Amino acid sequence: MKPLSVNWFIEGYIDFEQKKYVLLSYLQEINRHFDKSRLYPNLADLIFHYNNLVEFKKNKSLMQQAFPLRLTQADIDAVKLTYQKIIQDDQSMQEIEQIIAYAMAQMNPAIQIGKEIYDFVESRLNINPIGIIPLMPYHGYFSLRNGKEHTCFIYEYQITIFEGKDDKYRGININFLENYEYSIVNTPEAMKLKLINRNKFMPNPAVYYVHSDITFPLEQTLLPVAKRSLVKYISNAA
């Protein structure tokens, strides 16, 4: 997918029709991915650009704390410089306001489609604890199975807590370990014993079996949704 630059709506020649063409090409590509249930990184990228427009519309011009993961200091300086140049040009500002209003109106339905796909995938997921779960289940393993496929994927996970401006948030880091073929012998319970024997530093790790009843794109959809669902499940159970 051809990326949309951070300040696409104010960079270069400011012309509504030209920016409309750039936007619609981007959204067409996003929708192609959504049609195939490929959510990431497309949904996250789309939401980022929508929020970017919202912030600009509020005349905050992309402050660094609003987008710490995407904007470098060079990005911020470039946007501020561009903003300072155009804010005194009434005609340019009117054109930009038209571009922003149009872009937000076009992006919002696409975001809703992405969220509906996300909710559908999440509704098809089941998370089952394997054996006894420790009191602090923030570090452990999960086995992921995609629909009726026999290949399962084992990941080590660690849930982290970080503070934002107004609240605490939970994130998850994962590390792929191996895959195995699901069978009468190779079950999630059997894999837990194997993991315990391999890693003596975690004699009773938290282990979860995460599986969907429908097959989805693994890297672009199932795994990202499974990660977030596991964080939610553990947070609610802890």
Number of strands: 5
Tally of distinct domains? 2
- The mean pLDDT is 86
The backbone outline, from C-alpha atoms, is elongated
Biggest sheet record: 5 strands, mixed
Radius of gyration over alpha carbons? 22 Å
Class by alpha and beta content: alpha+beta
What is the helix fraction of residues, given as a range?
Answer: 40-55%
What would your notes on this structure say?
Strand 3 and strand 4 form a beta hairpin. The longest helix is centred in the middle third of the chain and has 34 residues, at 90-123. A five-stranded mixed beta sheet has the order 1-5-2-3-4. The chain folds into two domains: 16-122, no CATH class; 125-237, no CATH class. Helix 1 (16-35) packs parallel to helix 4 (90-123). The protein is elongated. The two termini are 39 Å apart. By secondary structure, the chain is of the alpha+beta class. The chain has helices at residues 16-35, 42-57, 73-86, 90-123, 188-198, 218-237, and strands at residues 125-129, 139-145, 151-163, 168-181, 206-212. It has six helices and five strands. Helices cover 48% and strands 19% of the residues.
SSE diagram, text form:
Layout: H1 16-35, H2 42-57, H3 73-86, H4 90-123, E1 125-129, E2 139-145, E3 151-163, E4 168-181, H5 188-198, E5 206-212, H6 218-237
Helix pairs in contact: 1-4, 2-4
Output the keywords.
about 240 residues; alpha+beta; 2 domains; 6 helices; 5 strands; about 20% strand; elongated
